[in-house]
Specification:
Glyco_hydro_2; TIM Barrel; about 10% helix; mainly beta; Immunoglobulin-like; Jelly Rolls; 5 domains; 11 helices; eight-stranded parallel beta sheet
Amino acid sequence: MTIASTSSVPYLADTAPGRGPRRPPRSWLHSDAPTLSLDGAWLFRLSPVAPADEDLADDGFDDSDWDTIPVPSHWVLEGDGAYGRPIYTNVQFPFPIDPPHVPDENPTGDYRRRFTLPADWSAAERILLRFDGVESLYKVWLNGIEIGIATGSRLATEFDVTDAVRPGENVVAVRVHQWSPASYLEDQDQWWLPGIFRSVTLVARPAGGIDDVWLRAGYRDGAGTLDAELTADPSAFPITLSVPELGVERTWQTPDEVGPIAVDTVEPWSAERPLLYEATVSSAAETITLRVGFRTVEIRGDRFLVNGNRVVFHGMNRHEAHPDRGRVFDEEHARADLARMKQFNVNAIRTSHYPPHPRLLDLADELGFWVILECDLETHGFEKGGWRGNPSDDPAWRDAYLDRIRRTVERDKNHPSIVMWSLGNESGTGANLAAMSAWVHARDTGRPVHYEGDYTGEYTDVYSRMYPTVIETAEIGTDGSRAPLLNCTPAQGARQRTKPFILCEYAHAMGNGPGALDQYEQLVHEHPRLHGGFVWEWRDHGIRTTTPEGAEFFAYGGDFGEVVHDGNFVMDGMVLSNDVPTPGLHEYKAVVQPIRFVFDVDAVALTNLRHSADASDLRFRWRVEHDGAVVRTGELDVPELEAGATVLVPLPEVPVAHDAETWLTVDAELRDDVAWAPAGHIVASAQVDRSARIPVPAAPTVPLRSGDAAAPASGTLTLGPASFENGRLVSLGGRPVSGPRLELWRAPTDNDEGAAYSDPTGSDGSVVGVSSASLWREQGLDRLTRRLVSSSGDATSLRTVERVSAANALASVSVESTWTLNDGELELRVEILPSAGWNTVWPRIGVRFDLPDDATAVDGASWFGLGPLESYPDSIHAAAVGRYESTVDDLSADYARPQETGHRSAVRRLTLRAGEADVLALTFLPDTRGRRPGFTLSRHTPQQLAAAGHPFELPASDTTYLFVDAAQHGLGSRACGPDVWPEYALRPEARTLRIRFA
Ligand code: GAL
């Protein structure tokens, strides 16, 4: 093999989408024509550069010393690093921007395998070699004969190999280059993962077969239409379409006869009731099986409708990501993921930013999702040069663009779930995109075209944006608003306001967050032009990796020694790499739940917010709890509840406790098992407070002694369960405990570290400011020091005053802690008073208690308050008042990069556990404004969390830390979106904590 530079490989500077006998793109069909899977072990050799000679092509080439590699797979995920490592970049190209050239250092995988042509294929008219996905450019030979070249990593190619295939044994050779001109069109925010990563199949096409079928099934007012388009040789006729369940059986004798069929009565398909009818299309030689869903997509004015009803997308951007397999499809994993989406009230998927494995769409049809199917296209890296040289507007790339959209639409056109085509993502704008759109409009009149980058709406049918603020989103939805729209003149803006609007991306789910989901959701109800959106994104793309010491973790950018990378920006999912839903996903589920509950004194108004399904699949169970203990349960008698309707349902009589809080909870749960969840799964839930007024015990008064410092608390002091040495707490309930110690710092979330979108109330998200986290560090919130100003104590009380401040800081906080023993009850009151001169938001206002491991570690907690999961001021809808318990470890979410986690809000009582024993019981009293603190229990300090890039970097712990927070800053989604909304932003302020200990 000769290693040579790329310049001697001319096709590596060719913008053509492919060469050779590539068959016209067609649907990915389930057919009874014979196929031979070529998946499995292939022989493999990797070169660090693109070799100049093509020795692998030779029929008799000696490949006996090659390795074997599975197909499908990505070579960088095989062989434990033997074949290179994955690279993660968001916008950046991991090679010089020098289109259409790519560097000579171009990892190239050569693949070979032998197969035997099935003996009974001799009757086949043509034989095709089909590749469902290869990244990024590949050249194919069969039996030494050059077949062709293809690109379009996430698109299928079928080569006609009839003339090259031979009876008996055959040898197929494939050369795959990691980098190619096509890489410039595939700059999606994800791992670069080369290889043959989807199936390879040999396909026999029978004489008289049906090459392609498109069944367009429309629906209107109870009736359907079936419009067939067939691609078949006239000799294949007669062809019969049959849908037994509908009594449809139509035989066309000639191509000319093929035409629409009216179906009198049919059930429509929707994401809520995904009703599919099995259909067959058959000639004498071939039968194709399809599942038909009847639905009509249309835009009327600024409304996007399916079957006449407005669609609200509660969607997720979905990448193909698997912690071990990368983008290699795993049907069981994908099905479980989609079921999980349904369980969390997700009803839509944008296939960001390329067509998924074709089976995914079968699953979407079956489980019910509105799908925006996106083409494999992104040229984001050209933004760096002001989009200079962007392929989207360069005629040299026009064929490649048109080729991509054709292959996208043709492959997946039969799926009822697909309600919109998307041209791609973040590719600037230009004539090639407009040409793609024109092609789609001509080919498929039944689905609109989406592309976010068409800001002024020159060639797309819906208005789409990513990450606008709440204010801007509202302005897009407001009739008559003259607020300017991004990159639009007033006239262009006015035009955009005549179209349906979607948030193709919003609520960047990186790390702890996003906040403000409820604010976006609220807008959908206020402005019918707004059709919801797609959270960025469904799952983290972490790659399961093991440290040399054997600790498993999920790798992100930089973990494989990449030259350029974008760190953990690839960990921005609602589901962690190990399939665990984040608290953010629970929040999402609660915010978008399809039933709205509005409680009155003795009735609840239930509104069905669904697209078209009634609520007969739901049962409404209620329960009354006294301080979290269930005292009565029952079921509401809910009459028929059509989509869009509201019914008033009487509530049961609620027994109100006099010494406990009384809460009524109603859960709407599935009556029966469905494909994605068992009966009893809770779809929607709401709570209402029915408590009698419970008086808050007054704070014990401690006489003010003038000049506290004059009577310093020295020596040992015991107040009930607490012991103090020289004015400082040393034990509680017999266990070593220190504190309270003011804590204003939290380990910055990914959103706290975000620097864009500094003004959440503005309408220009692009304003870049300074991240909250850097302001916090600048002010030293992570390194506060203390000075005891005064202390005084007697037999029943102890008071200390501390001044807390950071090195080189003028601003300070005064912390006055007063312990009082009253009738045997110990109360701590902490007054936190900021000085003047604090001028940013604070992460938290709280105190920390250290509970060093004694004979046992504090390893669990139970509480009455909001739970069960963590909550923050702008992400609190999933939390309900109740009694909960958890281990310390389970209180934290395993974000890929350690950060703030675990805050439980509005807590009334907390019991800490060590093993089986309750070691400390705390009661939190509300402040004079009724606000209750939250708690966090962690094996690490925020300083330790903030210093770790991955969970395995956290130091071994010998202490449990309890934080009692009067307040926490909100979350926002500033990692790539708006900062925390002012109402949930924590400004320095005076707060009081009152804690009783038992
Ligand atoms: C968008 C982009 C996504 C992703 C996201 C940030 O601009 O379309 O692919 O990069 O930002 O995570």
